[in-house]
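Thread: "does anyone have the structure for this chain?"

Original post by V.I.:
We have the sequence but no experimental structure in hand. Need at least a predicted one for the grant figures.
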Amino acid sequence: MATPGTNLTILDWARKVQAIAQSGMAFTKDPFDRERYTQLKELVASILAAQLEVPVSRAKAFWEHEEGYATPKVDVRGGVFRDGKVLLVRERSDGKWTLPGGWVDVNDAPSSAVVREIYEESGYRARAVKLAALFDRNHPRHGHPPGIHHIYKLFFLCELLGGEPTLSIETDGVDFFTLDALPELSTGRVTRSQIARLYEHQLHPELQTDFD
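Reply from O.Q.:
Generated one for you, tokens below.
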């Protein structure tokens, strides 16, 4: 559990209040309730702005286009292994490395999304063969840094089919690494323990899917 007073706890509270307000706005017909839910969203933005030391306008933008019943976002990551090494890409946004992946688009199956992300970010073609893990990014045990949104992370074990390393608008590095010599990871996207667990699934396909 998060310690009271930490940013993680405040983010947990903010996400919950934001979700209540967003869902309330989606279903209520009462103009007075809509006004109250709007006030809750304004309060969340003010609290986050103060805690994260960002302008209120930026805090409002975190959920600016979120409508309807509030649900977690879905992020997919692909574990591609070759000769005991894992495929990683380097993100232009922070200069750190991660498993290729990203958000699942509307009308896109998660397995199709991860195959597309692998190709777009690395240049390699792959096939999703197993959902190895479904984790709650916000659970403290996974070791991700605090984040604004509530995210479910789907880790797929993928088979390498071909292709060659290719840079993209999001990535400026593509390479295979041994697990005992991983580069600095973008821990908001993936952690060492998650890569290691994927490799266990690679070695032991009979393992059941991990989930929270």
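V.I.: this helps a lot. The helical segments are 7-27, 31-52, 56-61, 110-122, 192-203.
O.Q.: and The radius of gyration is 19 Å.
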